[in-house]
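Hey, can you fold this one?
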Amino acid sequence: MKRRLLLTGATGFLGYNFLQQNLLAWEVIAATHQRPFSFSAINTVILNLADTNNIEHVFATIQPEAVVHLAAIADTNFCENNETLAEQINVNATVTLAKLCKASAIPFLFTSTDLVFDGTKGNYAETDMTNPLNIYGKQKITAEKNVLEIYEAACVLRMPLMFGNGGAYAQSFMQPFLAKLKQGETLSLFTNEYRSAVGGNSAAKGILHALNNQWKGLYHLGAKEKLSRYEFGALLCETLGINKNLIAPALQADVKMAAPRPPDVSLNSDKAFLQGYKPLSVSAALAQLAKQYKL
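Sure. Predicted structure:
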């Protein structure tokens, strides 16, 4: 018998990729707020994560048997300039859902970020000290701590930078890169910002694997490699047959941004690898995307 799963962030990048997975064991109810949503065989519900009463009402009405909480305000510059609104979604809604899941004794999976680290060393394990540099990272670590204190059976998954197709409503950082490159424009990319970038499909598979295998506690879902933005751009060009000379090296200090950016938040995901998480390499994921979407 299928179990009822409440999925938040269904129209986001990660939500789209999650809905592409084999979800036959689950009756998915996809939560959306302002965006229209249409996905074959998926039921939807209107959910305002800024309204605690609405969250509690929807939860009581649906009576889910598991919750995968992907929704977030993840634009770091927006969070920096709209801290109160971002906190309602990134912290308060997460805490409310954790409490509801604990009261019902059901699985709760929450996605956090690699930006909980300050980027001074890289290759961060789950046991390493956090020290976020921006509001988004600070809100996510606050949410993490609250979730794990509130509900010992909860699972927190720290996600790396992700790339790929995001459906009708969301894309990754890759699409603006491609748009410029295909127009023959030079793309300046940081040589001193490192991440454990992973394809959206691999990330979603990891989340579903964690759900199906009832992971508890804190895990990293990064790739097995770390790349700079510049190195990613070079791989993108190589995979798609685009002139690599269009990629120009730049430094973080060259671009002023509202939110501070850490230099190296690459993740050590050995704990998840040992539990069966198997992300594709960046080059393999790019090749798969190129073939699937005729990039």
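The chain is about 40% helix and 20% strand. Let me know if you want another pass with a different chain boundary.
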